[in-house]
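Duplicate of #3305? Posting structure anyway:
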């Protein structure tokens, strides 16, 4: 995959504009079943948005095919987040542990 070419076509993601994904709905359901009080789509400074935030300082993310740009469903990254996740995923996959 040509990361430089893909980077030129990125869309900007507004962290405040969000609806729940299937992965998030599963996470929320588990937290509800466990009677864990949490808030949804909580901004973390200006860095990102937590899918679920548990007081005082637990941040949970439910990333799936969209955020990691699964090649079964997405031919190239469309957002900066997807681009960064692909680079990180690739690095973690090929790097010796």
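Output from current build:
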């Amino acid at each position: 995959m040509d990361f430089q070419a893909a980077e030129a076509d990125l869309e900007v993601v507004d962290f405040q504009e969000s609806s729940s994904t299937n992965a998030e709905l599963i996470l929320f359901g588990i937290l509800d079943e466990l009677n864990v009080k949490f808030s949804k789509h909580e901004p973390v400074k200006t860095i990102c948005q937590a899918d679920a935030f548990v007081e005082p300082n637990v941040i949970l993310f439910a990333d799936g095919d969209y955020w990691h740009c699964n090649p079964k469903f997405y031919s190239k990254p469309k957002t900066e987040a997807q681009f960064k996740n692909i680079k990180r995923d690739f690095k973690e996959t090929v790097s010796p542990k």
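Confirmed duplicate; merging threads. Residues 3-94 form one domain. The beta strands are 39-44, 48-54, 58-60.
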